[in-house]
Amino acid sequence: MDKQIRIALAGNPNSGKTTLFNKLTGSNQFVGNWPGVTVEKKEGRLIVDKEVILTDLPGIYSLSPYTLEEVVARNYLIEEKPDAILNIVDATNLERNLYLTTQLTELGIPVVIALNMMDLVRKAGDSINVKELSRQLGCKIVEISALKGDGVKEAALAAIEAAKSGKTIPQHRFSGPVEHALAHIEEVTVHKLPEEQQRWYAIKVFEHDEKVLESLNIPADVRAHIEQDIAAAEKELDDDAESIITNERYVYIGQTLKGIYKKKGKGQLSVSDKIDKIVTNRILALPIFAAVMFLVYALSMGSSIADGGIAIGTFLTDWTNDVLGGAWLTDGSRAILEAWGAAPWLVGLISDGILAGVGAVLGFVPQMLVLFLMLCLLEDCGYMARIAFIMDRIFRRFGLSGKSFIPMLVGTGCGIPGVMASRTIENERDRRMTVMTTTFIPCGAKMPIIGLIAGALFGGSTWIATSAYFIGIAAIVISGIMLKKTKMFAGDPAPFVMELPAYHLPAWSNVLRGTWERGWSFIKRAGTVIVVSSIVIWFLTSFGSVNGKFGMVDDLYEDDTVVTDEYVAAVAGRMGIPEDEVEPMDDSILARVAQPVSVVFKPLGFGDWKPTAATVTGLVAKEEVVANFGIMYAYDDQDGAEELEENGDQIWGRVAEDFNAFSGGHGRLAAFTFMIFNLLCAPCFAAIGAIKREMNSRKWTWFAIGYQCCFAWVTAFIVWQIGRLFAGGMNVAGLILAVAMLALIVWQLFKPYKEAQMLTVK
Ligand code: GDP
Ligand code: MG
After folding, report:
1. 159 within 8 A of 84, measured Cβ to Cβ
2. Confidence of residue 680 (pLDDT cuts 50, 70, 90)
3. For 474-510, how does the pLDDT look when each residue is reduced to its tens digit (9 = 90+)?
4. What is the pLDDT of residue 268?
5. Which of 147, 508, 509, 513 has the most ligand 1 atoms within 8 A of CB, as the residue to mutate?
6. Residues 13 and 117 reside in one and the same domain
7. What are the two backbone dihedrals, phi and then psi, of residue 9, each rounded to the nearest 5 degrees?
8. Residue 190 lies in domain
9. Ligand 2 centroid to 256 CA: how many Å?
């Protein structure tokens, strides 16, 4: 029987790898993880030949040892030696893409190039002399459009053909001094390795690639001998070895491309370039970004179309809230269960616990789906890549890299992949800093908190929802700048090369799938984590000890011998509220536990046990904050029924009333600081777990959590104290302290940045 053919699919991120892989394998795919790491491993059988296995390598720009993706990809190519490499190349970005190609062709494995995005090249009226390019690179090139499916079958057949013939291709040569050193290295260190791989190893030794040097274990005397050769080349070419190789590759690509890529009407800007001239303009870039994000939030979470706004999301959420979060569900189910004669505790558990909690969270699904849809659109059309580019320009001035911004973009869905995305940052200090700050950005689970505050207290103001996003970004930028000026994080920014793919119309299938994946994971959590924790919260809010007796607080309060007038007075005193506002829940376990903790939040304006309990349970999952409110305010209030009827959104109306009550009439300001604190403080346990994995250190994990909580507290404190200067009822001591903190932050932001000691390389 024939040996099974294995083909590896390699290419830059965004070159269309996933699209091509799906086209080539159809539904014959299997997904797993690369051994030992959580990078997705996809494999599949080719449609044209089921005997051929196609392995999708991680998207990479180079075969250097700096990122996990690169290491995974090159280990596979070197150790598993697939029979051929199908190298997908974005034809609209040849120069950057061919950089990887020059490295792939050195591995001793036949390479076939799938020249992708040809539809865009043709549409722009450009042309590529494929025959000449193929001759110069020494490998077969097939023009394809992965999106349209053009040429993909031919590309697969060419790769199979190449795998069978097993021919390696003529390779590009470096300059004289380099080739001289390479020859020596091949002779003394790598001659025992398979012949076709020797050149790749020799180049890596020349580059001082640590991973390769480690694996080769070269004796000290031999190593010293080679270093002399390398030093000679470095001296002659006046650069360090790694840069020499990089430069020569780019020079080679530049020369090869000359005359091969013909732009229509030379010197004319493509549409994409024209858009970029405006969108990435030094002055306009940030206002445009702000306007775009404002529009995104206005459409998803702003004022409902029913109220004269443009938010489809809010309109749908109002509707589902009426159904899921409103009286209908809790009261309706209560009536049905009571009619069936269910025990009171069971009615409470189902209606006021599970349904109130989960319903409160699910009510926000439409807003979230609209928001995700729009973020996916911006990502898919190529706009988000520009944002990282713009941010890099700003960050760089403070010694930060725009790379720190990419995890943040990922983090808008969920903080966990956001934190994991920091792996692409080579510099350890920058990576740690990014891990610490990524979760400041509002993730999907924080959306309901924003929706609740914006909706219940601010009448669906678009400004509040948008501010949440910009507070997150500001927290990242401010933290980045402040931390970078401390000893712990000082240092030069990591080099940042980012491909700006040509703008293109979004592929709806990609966008819808991305939106649905994020939305579905949210719904799944509502059905699992939130159900379980809602049961726990319901128990903690329904049971407690009243005047020495333990039981369901509602029942105990019915009994006048237990709840005497003196007792009510005592509870009112303990909770710091008027006697006629004492309610059974004030004696619940949750109230008893949360009440003392609420002192921490007094200076932030929401020092009441209910928001305190919601904030703390947010550690389990951020959706829990809203679920918790749903449960705490879902009580069956006979007296208030009429009043609430008028209030429409009954549960959220109660929340607003309460915020006003405990903040001395500053309900909006208190709700805003509540939102700020919950957006910025420590993320949920799952994300903390991710932080711990990435930090790989207990000390750093605690430091990260401590920093996040302190930052959140200080920000909310400043907003509450200074806010009351305008809203009335200011506290002089608090205001002075707030101004002092603000001054300290501003000072740290603007004090000159001490350059890290210059390393003298040359
Ligand atoms: P990956 O990051 O390499 O996996 O790239 P994807 O497969 O996710 O593709 C990136 C983007 O390029 C997606 O929006 C695709 O729809 C788009 N794309 C992929 N191939 C083509 C193509 O041949 N033509 C055009 N116009 N777009 C493409
Ligand atoms: Mg992909």
Report:
1. yes
2. very high
3. 999 899 889 888 878 876 665 555 556 778 788 888 8
4. 60
5. 147
6. yes
7. -100, 115
8. 176-262
9. 28
Please give the mean pLDDT across all residues of the chain: 86
Residue 120: pLDDT above 60? yes
**Cα 100 to ligand 1 centre (Å):** 18
101 shares a domain with 247: no
Question: For ligand 1, what atom is nearest to the CA of residue 20?
Answer: 7
Cα 57 to middle of ligand 2, angstroms: 10
pLDDT tens-digit map of 591-606: 999 999 999 999 999 9
* Bridge partners, residue 45, by sequence: 53
Nearest atom, ligand 1, residue 504 CA: 26
Protein residue whose Cα sits closest to atom 14 of ligand 1: 380
Residues 81 and 136 in one domain: yes
Is the domain of 490 the same as that of 523?
Answer: yes
SS3 719: helix
Handedness of CA 90, 95, 96, 101 (dihedral sign): positive
Atom of ligand 1 nearest to the CA of 506: 14
Distance 501 CA to ligand 1 centre (A): 10
Output the furthest CA–CA distance in the chain (Å, rounded): 100
Check if the beta carbon of residue 147 is closer than 8 Å to that of residue 141: no
Say whether both 82 and 46 belong to one domain: yes
| C-alpha distance from residue 514 to each of 112, 171, 380, 410, 525 (Å) | 30, 40, 10, 12, 17
Residue 114 sits in a domain of what CATH number? Answer: 3.40.50.300
Burial of 243 (0-12, 13-18, 19+ CB in 10 A): middle
Ligand 1 atom closest to the Cα of residue 116 is 23
294 pLDDT higher than 50:
yes
Higher pLDDT: 395 or 89? It is 89
Q: Quickly tell me which residue has 């732009």 as its tokens.
A: 263
pLDDT, one tens digit per residue, over 159-205 is 999 999 877 776 788 999 999 999 999 988 888 888 889 999 999 99
Closest ligand, as measured to the CA of 124:
1
Q: Which ligand is nearest to the CA of 150?
A: 1
Per-residue pLDDT band for 759 (boundaries 50, 70, 90) equals: very low
Ligand 2 ion local residues (Cβ < 5 A): 18
Quick one: which atom of ligand 1 is closest to the CA of 19? Answer: 7
- Pocket lined around ligand 1, Cβ cut-off 6 Å: 11, 13-19, 59, 116-117, 119-120, 145-147, 380, 504, 507, 510
> In angstroms, what is the span from residue 495 Cα to ligand 2's centroid?
23
Give nearest CA residue, ligand 1 atom 2: 14
Residue 744 inside a domain? The answer is no
Residue 115, helix vs strand vs coil: strand
Same domain, 161 and 180: no
* Atom of ligand 1 lying closest to residue 146 CA: 23
pLDDT band for position 756 (cuts 50, 70, 90): very low
